Amino acid sequence: MYTLVNRDEESSVYNFVKNLLLEGSSEKTKWREVHQDFERFNLMFGERKRKGLDYTRLGHVPGLCQAVNYYRGSENLLCKKVPLVKYVRSITQSEAETYQWIPVSFIILPAQLKSKSDSRMNKSAKYVDEREKLEAFANSLKEKVWIAKSSSGAKGKDIFISNDIEEIVAFVDEQTQGFVVQKYIENPLLLDKNRKFDIRCWVLLDHTYTIYIFSEGVLRTSSEPYDVDNLKNITSHLTNHCIQEEYSGNFGLYEEGNEMFYGEFSRYLEETFGVSLATTILPQINSIVKKCLLGLKEELTTEGLSYHSFQLFGFDFMIDAQFHVWLLEVNGAPACAKALLPDLAQDLVRKAIDPLFPRDSRNDEPFESDSSESKTQDTTKGHFVII
Q1: Residue 361: CB atoms within 10 Å
Q2: Other C-beta atoms within 10 Å of 360: how many?
Q3: Which of 30, 155, 214, 252 has most Cβ atoms within 10 angstroms of its Cβ?
Q4: How far apart are CA 269 and CA 250, in angstroms?
Q5: How far is CA 224 from the centre of its chain?
Q6: How many Å separate Cα 166 from the centre of its chain?
């Protein structure tokens, strides 16, 4: 009998995974859920709190295999926007190489944080304010649009777009956390009706540090035509579901839930541009994912520790009009498109949990789930593949 602790009741992915394990326990591996403070657990679905989960709880029971669905350090090294920029710079050899796959970026500290950084004479400060570099670079460009994103912002919050760099800096100075100010991608690839989109890809890192990417991704689409001359119309520029659903009267007009899947997108690329998703776009995505995660292996790996980790990441990308892929951000606790959730959760169990907690080989049948709801949209069954 294996035991699991769920300290994140809000996660749609891990609640689905939990139910798969518990519902399948009668005939396959036997799982039971225990209270959150139970010490002899096998599997923990950790909390997503500001201070993060308590890793000191792991690996202290002799002979007990324990695993958690996060890699320690991933949040502060990869899954916040300011550390992500600093990290990408550290693994590339030059500024030109850095900005081959993330937009030109500057770290800007609000006035109150900048003064603290300056008082430390930048010796012990975690981040250095780069506003002078930003202003000098911005003044040298013909394209003037910039986007400011808070380091730990989510759901489209704390984002500001402007073609006035002084307005951007003034906005950041009113905030309470570090921001990344990036050169706005002014020439995005557009869907029909001239609409923007971004791509969410799900990436699984198992306990052996093997990198998998889910074979199906989702385009999160805009409901309004893209208009670079009207930066105040946020539904024209921000494709986040929360923004589109709250502020656009056209939400769901073009795609159900403003979601397009790979099959439809592949046909659109082929028919409109003669471009292949499989050979032009996905290899760029896979390359960026591998660069990000392999560069952190020494910091993140649990090899040699007394517990195991695995983690599901959400990598968000944008494609420009030249079919160049840009990394926007990495989410360490992503939700999943409803249509893909059953397949993603089932294969996450197979790839990340079953190898640590094997099922009874006499009853080693695949999980079955009523995924008829997912077949109402233009998608196919997905699975994780090694990259």
Answers
A1: 6
A2: 10
A3: 214
A4: 23
A5: 24
A6: 30
H or E segment to which residue 212 belongs: strand 211-214
pTM: 0.91
Q: Indicate the range of 12-16, 59-63, 345-349, 375-379 predicted with least confidence.
A: 375-379
CA nearest 77: which of 235, 225, 297, 264?
A: 297
* Tokens read off for 148: 């400011």
**First vs last Cα of the chain: how many Å apart?**
33
Per-residue tokens: 102: 């993330």
Tokens of 349: 């169990």
**CA 43, 44, 45: angle at the middle one, nearest 5?**
125
> Which two three-digit tokens encode residue 326?
């840009």
pLDDT in tens, 259-303: 999 999 999 999 999 999 999 999 999 999 999 999 999 999 999
Q: What's the rounded Cα separation, in Å, for the pair 117 and 125? A: 5
169 φ, ψ to 5°?
-65, -40
Give the tens place of pLDDT for each residue, 146-205.
999 998 766 667 899 999 999 999 999 999 899 999 999 999 999 999 999 999 999 999
Distance CA 253, CA 338 (A): 18
- Residues 6+ away with beta carbon under 8 Å from 33: 3, 4, 5, 6, 18, 22
50 φ/ψ sector (left φ>0, alpha ψ -120 to 50, else beta): alpha
pLDDT value, residue 155 = 65
Tell me the residue length of the chain: 387
Residue type, 241: H
**Which residues lie closer than 8 Å to 208 by C-beta, 6 or more apart?**
none
Count CB neighbours of 94 within 10 A: 9
